[in-house]
Amino acid sequence: MRKWTRRIFEITRGVFKRFSDDDGPLMSAAVAYYMGLSFFPLMMVLIAGVGLFLKYSAAGQDAEQQVLRAVSDQLSPAMRTHVETLLTQVRDRSELNAPTGLLSILIAAMAAFAQFERAFNHIWHVPSEPRTGILAAARRIIVQRGIAFLMLMAAGLLVLLVFICGMVLDGFQRFTSQLLHLPEMFWNLSWLGLSLVLNGLVFTMIYRWLPKAPVRWTDAFRGGLLASIGWEAGRQVLAAWVIDPSQSVAYGVAGSLLAILLWCYYAVTVLFLGAEYIQELVARREAAAS
Predict the structure, then answer these.
(1) Side-chain-facing half-sphere of 3: CA atoms under 13 Å
(2) Is 92 exposed, middle or buried (0-12, 13-18, 19+ CB in 10 A)?
(3) Radius of gyration over alpha carbons of the chain, in Å?
(4) Digit-coded pLDDT (tens) for 91-109
(5) What pTM does this model have?
(6) Which of 88, 124, 71, 78 is nearest to 238 (CA)?
(7) Exposure on the CB side of residue 175, measured as CA atoms within 13 A
(8) Backbone angles phi, psi at 95, to 5 degrees
(9) pLDDT tens for each residue of 167-200
């Protein structure tokens, strides 16, 4: 037991040391800033995508409410209030410049995902590509933005998956409530387990495919599991004690934007800590093999 506890302590210390050496807090702040800029572009794209994908269902008739429901389930009801406040402001002021605004927010969203790739390259110590001609640089930028666009679409598919799983769970709950009188705690734990599985799956795929350095599936899974648990624990803390819906009333749009930036910063920090955990596992395995 003592040996196992000591090992956990050493791994934890190694992870945070790597995070500090790689300027993790600074990278998290930079990427969170880009995420804050691209948050509402992503919301707009998701609302349009959900409305198109589920247009023949009852859920698709009000796509915005479905997206806000996903925000409430995956983040917190208070966060839904902040997002709804800012969405109203964006919608009320974007009627005259809709085409230009849509193009701008899509570019901002793809730039945010490109920053993730750059940060991961820094964590995995991937050497910078040598400077080449203008055509090669343009081709590299196009490829990077293409990857970022695919990640944007993958995020949309994740939200659709959350909707589908949520509707299945709600339908199962209504069906079984007529046969079995299960306590509310059972359904809360079921949704918690579903969130852990979905988030862990997303984190695992990010760790497996986003870094340019090779990552084993087992390492990606362990990092994804840790990040999923860290995200869920931090989400509960932020929802219970940090993020307050009264901020929208007291500070207006600025308070809502600050709340979103705080969520983004924590999410990025968890993601990068999971990446450093994978790095620590790989380093220890290589040290044991040598």
Answers:
(1) 0
(2) exposed
(3) 21
(4) 555 544 455 555 666 666 6
(5) 0.76
(6) 78
(7) 6
(8) -70, -35
(9) 666 666 666 766 666 677 776 777 778 778 888 8
Q: What does the angle CA 270 – CA 16 – CA 284 come to, to the nearest 5 degrees?
A: 105
- Amino acid in position 105: I
Residue type at position 264 = C
d(CA 204, CA 226) in angstroms, rounded, equals 10
Are 148 and 119 spatial neighbours (Cβ–Cβ below 8 Å)? no
In whole angstroms, what is the distance from residue 113 CA to residue 37 CA? 11
Contacts of 82 (CB under 8 A, 6+ apart): 243, 245, 247, 248, 255, 256, 259, 260
Q: What is the 3-state secondary structure (H, E, C) of the chain?
A: CHHHHHHHHHHHHHHHHHHHHCCHHHHHHHHHHHHHHHHHHHHHHHHHHHHHHCCCCCHHHHHHHHHHHHHHHHCCHHHHHHHHHHHHHHHHHCCCCHHHHHHHHHHHHHHHHHHHHHHHHHHCCCCCCCCCCHHHHHHHHHHHHHHHHHHHHHHHHHHHHHHHHHHHHHHHHHHHHCCCCCCHHHHHHHHHHHHHHHHHHHHHHHHHHCCCCCCCHHHHHHHHHHHHHHHHHHHHHHHHHHCCCHHHHHHHHHHHHHHHHHHHHHHHHHHHHHHHHHHHHHHHHHHHHC
